[in-house]
Amino acid sequence: MARDSHATKARLLDAALTEFATHGIAGARVDRIAEAADANKRLIYVYFGNKEQLFDHVMERALAAGAESVPFDVEDLPGYAGAIFDLLSGRPELMRLVLWKQLERPAATPAQQEAYAAKARALAAAQQAGRVDPAFEPTDILTMVLALSQAWFAAAGGPATEPDGSAWDARRRSAHRAAVVEAVGRLTAPPAPPGS
Amino acid sequence: MARDSHATKARLLDAALTEFATHGIAGARVDRIAEAADANKRLIYVYFGNKEQLFDHVMERALAAGAESVPFDVEDLPGYAGAIFDLLSGRPELMRLVLWKQLERPAATPAQQEAYAAKARALAAAQQAGRVDPAFEPTDILTMVLALSQAWFAAAGGPATEPDGSAWDARRRSAHRAAVVEAVGRLTAPPAPPGS
Q1: Considering the domain boundaries, does residue B63 fall inside one?
Q2: The pTM is what?
Q3: Which end of chain A is more exposed for a tag (fewer CB within 10 A), N or C?
Q4: Residue A1 pLDDT more than 50?
């Protein structure tokens, strides 16, 4: 019987994402991942290396998928922020993955550094061309846009919960999204030309 | 010999903060905390309860100390955000504590809910009085102000590190702080009166 290693790898990475999002890196158990993926635990080491390296693979794959479904758009930063809000709204496990990374494995991988640098270059060019407010440095814009897009998923009370403990309803969700979009606009729209 | 239980409690809470900030809740070990505090492990249970309850005590104490050193100031929200930035800059372990809480124990305690509600009421009154832009709901302002104040401590690369892996220097630190202050001003300053 032919072994479909591509499908097995994908199942392992899916199971690993769920395990890491739930328990973090130190708390994750490789045998639970293997069992959830219906695969031999040894294959994890063969395909991906140790648990930390497996986490890096999961993270790279999640970031690549995120960048594909929500491409960075320097011409519409409020829309980009709203799209990240929507992505995290539908997939709160991605926010957890990012938070665990910040705590347990904060150093950016070379691929992450390059993705970040490419966005910063695009922002600098847009500032040069007068399409983004030059008041902030490109990396500060990126940091703030991401922080605002993620804010409601990493806020007091827990995911999709108000600080008072009540769960989000449709009106609140939509107000939060509108706040992200409006806030990013205020931070990035170029100043109006004099006399306008 | 008289036992100074107040001092022992404070030593245990200090040691617990360090342990939780480093390892999180699941990863924290009560015997390491007792050893670091030079106290009997049994006293932790006597004074604070189980490990989760100990975490709640540590968190309440850290938030109370934070609120005392950086009081909420609805009349100067940019200054408040800058002061949070300074606090986290000097004590990055507080940011880690908050991140672990978001992942492992997200529900707000009653004291946290009340502190949040008090800030929201102050913001609503300031909006009513025309001193804060009424465009955003009070809880959305709080969420965004906190997210911006914390953004650089929870960003890609790790604490006090740029996304490109380089460590913060004094110029960058000061640019980041200025960006927080300016951004919070843009989101909260009341609109200029017509004709001004």
Answers
A1: no
A2: 0.93
A3: N
A4: no
Q: Which amino acid is at B177?
A: R
- The total number of residues written for chain A in this structure: 196
Dihedrals phi, psi of B24, to nearest 5 degrees:
75, -175
Mind telling me how many Å the CA of A95 is from chain B's nearest CA? Answer: 10
B164 to chain A: closest CA residue: A113
Average pLDDT of the segment spanning A68-89: 96
Residue A174 maps to which CATH number?
A: 1.10.357.10
Which residues does chain A have within 8 Å of residue B186's beta carbon, measured at their own beta carbons? 186-187
Assess if residue B131 is contained within a domain: yes
DSSP B23: H
Enclosing domain of residue A48: 1-55
Residue B1 distance to chain A (closest CA, Å): 42
Residue B142 lies in a domain: yes
Residue pair B40/B8 in contact by the 8 Å Cβ criterion: no
Number of domains in chain A: 2
Q: What count of Cα atoms within 13 Å lies in the side-chain half-sphere of residue A178?
A: 9
How far is B77 from B85, CA to CA, in rounded Å? Answer: 12
Q: How much is the mean pLDDT over chain A? A: 92
Quote the ipTM score. 0.92
Whether the pLDDT of residue A41 is over 70: the answer is yes
Task: Dump the DSSP string for B146-184.
Answer: HHHHHGGGSSTT-TTB-TTSPBP-HHHHHHHHHHHHHHH
A84 near A149, Cβ under 8 Å?
Answer: yes
